[in-house]
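Suppose a classmate hands you a notebook page containing two proteins, each written out with its sequence and a corresponding row of structure tokens. How would you begin to make sense of it? This section walks through that situation. The first entry is reproduced here exactly as it would appear on such a page.
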Amino acid sequence: MAVMMQAFYWDAPKLDNKEHEWWNFIAEKVPDLGKAGFDALWLPPVSKAASNTSMGYDPYDYFDLGDLDQKGGVKTWYGNSEELRSLIKKAHDNGMGLYADMVINHNSGADEEEINPLDGEKRWTKFNPKSGRFPRDWNCFHPSRYEQVMIDGENFAGFPHLCHRNPVVYTELFNYARFLIEELGFDGFRFDFVKGFGAWMIGILSKYRYVKNGAEFQPWVVGEYWSGQEDIDEWIEKVNSYTDNQIAAFDFPLRYQLKKVCDEPSYDLRNLTYGESVLMKRPLHAATFVDNHDMGADMIVNDKLMAYSFILVHEGYPSIFWFDYYNNGLARPLTPNGIDALIQVHHANAGGDSNILHCDPDLYIMQRVGWKDENNDQPGLVYVLNNLGDSWSGTSVKTKWANQRFKPVAWDGHDEAHPDERTTDAEGNAEFPAPPRGYCIYVPIS
């Protein structure tokens, strides 16, 4: 599977002193990210929002990429269209795809208030964007003549919500999706706040037969459904009933489990095995992550590499958070003790099914059995997660490999000692330890 980078965090342009220059800043990092093994970049919303210092989750002019003087300036918080196009080309040249952040439910920054004749309420729903594309009035929002009550989703803050059943809205959102894929060159979509609108809308935008570089193109698609496992499972079932694209969902239940692993030293590791996550129930639909731009004060603060090790050895499509990789210094290139080493293991070894070999409150051991075809040769691995805070821990487990040497290739924890090689016996048994409050990954060697 691939690895994506969430290439931003909240107020990134300001905190990194790259105001209105974020696209250029990412582009500087692209060659190194490609060499590190990243396959795709998830970018923040690219359109002009309610202000030119907005993160983009309050869209105003979908077709202004930072070239028109409106909402406080010309550029978006991230840059302009030329800089965005340059970033997309550079990423593609370095073997990486790009995912666009789609905010298609709520809008902000309207130019005028209007009285909605259906309920007599006055709202900010008159939009006259300078691009001249997708002007909007009250009938483009809820309530409208096409849907008098909002039956498809939940409201977000006080923003007016687009009515997707209005043919004008429906058509313009298709135009916007085509613009991102066919004109700008994006390779997929991340849909924001999918609770706010019907799953059918994502299904049809995903199923559309886009044309890219002269050939039909199918985007990769993931939704942000911030809820528990049952709700996400129901959404996955519904949204995939509209398309055969196999749309994914971010695994919020797993993320909250991993936060407890990292921030609560007594957390029972058996909770990771009970199927209460997208990963455990629907691994092919799981987009796994450790933190993102929305977590704020709820971010993981301790032993975060334990969480990254977990998502990078299991199934699912793991997302690495820019702030952790760069600002928190967890990349740790050219060492076995950081995200870079975990990405290398992910690509080289993390293939085939996952089998849990042992799990108790403080020790979790899993094997990936490996996978080989004409395009891949991933021989598998043994992963050990140790929750004890004061000692190395391991136990003898029966692996699929008999008389096989293993070497440790990635590890971290509260002890800087180097783990030793291991060799299984004729029945595949060996003891595999990991450092305190840490992990160790062992791979078979010839």
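The notebook's second entry, a different protein, reads as follows.
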Amino acid sequence: MHIQTKLPKVGTTIFSVMSQLAMEHKAVNLGQGFPDFEPPEALRDAMTRAMAEGRNQYAPGIGLANLREQIALKTERLYGYKIDPATEVTVTSGATEALFAAIAAIVREGEEVIVFDPCYDSYEPAIELQGARAVHIPLSLPTFGIDWQRVREAITPKTRMILINSPHNPSGAVLSAADLDELAAIVRGTDIVVLSDEVYEHIVYDGAAHQSVLRHTELATRSIVVSSFGKTFHCTGWKVGYAVAPQALSAEFRKVHQYLTFCTFHPAQQAFAEFLASSPEHYLELPAFYQVKRDRFRELIAPSRLTLLDVPGGYFQLVDYSAIRDEDDVAFCEWMVKHAGVAAIPLTPFYERAPGTRLVRLCFAKSDATMEAAAERLCKL
């Protein structure tokens, strides 16, 4: 039987490839972006308690009411934007599901979605599966900022969505309030929807405030904003996220969500609802928590021959390896995991047209012991 693929450019993700290589070579895995430490004990206890209390069957499709209420309170507390938990919050099975559901709900065949390279690898397949086209605009090096004039020039009658990501994966760049003003001016008077991937919203450094689209009233009324409990609470394996959007957009989003996953893991939802209510200090203190790790990791690898780029947000460190080897980033990552015992992620898979830079991504959402073990090996390169 001949099967014609709908995703001819898609293979196994680079994250899975590098994690498998890390296991095969017993390397320190700084590639895939997951913490190697546990979620808060009180959160784990809350989920155990939820299971013991019988919360093991389907949750409501849009999410537990008490969790959606806590999300609404958190959103207003952080961004000054009041939302209706009944009609404007949807709990999802991870942020990746939310991103897919948003694209599937809004983007139609023949339309275009503007994305910014390097961009997370799930964006384009979701767009292509709708019969639409991703329009790639490269971020400006070395800051990974957006050239808004290029965005204006890329707008066509087919443009249906602009997909932004701040703090940015893989670079750690963050959007400013001025950036959001530029974006608002571009979409004003159009039917373009903004999809804002904000899964690292609580990991912004040096006293800066995360500039959520929800802070910008004009943008908030035409945007779908995606967040991740996994990133915020060190439990990526629980796969729980959520989407905030105006009622009309949420209604369309929920149509797809109900046939994609229907509902999300019930005990975890109850645990998050309880923990958000009892321990808001967790996400409020998260920038300081990760800034300590960022600064420690940079200190540890500073003696190496790697050149460190700035990290305004997120939990990834980009490094330039051109002083060590002159080869493309995929080859370098394969060499490094085999010969240095450290796994990293190349940037090429995040691009439509790779710019030929010598940059790789290292994750510092790790214990001190892991960072120290990796640094010892990196400093020998």
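A careful reader of the second entry would note: The chain is about 40% helix and 15% strand.
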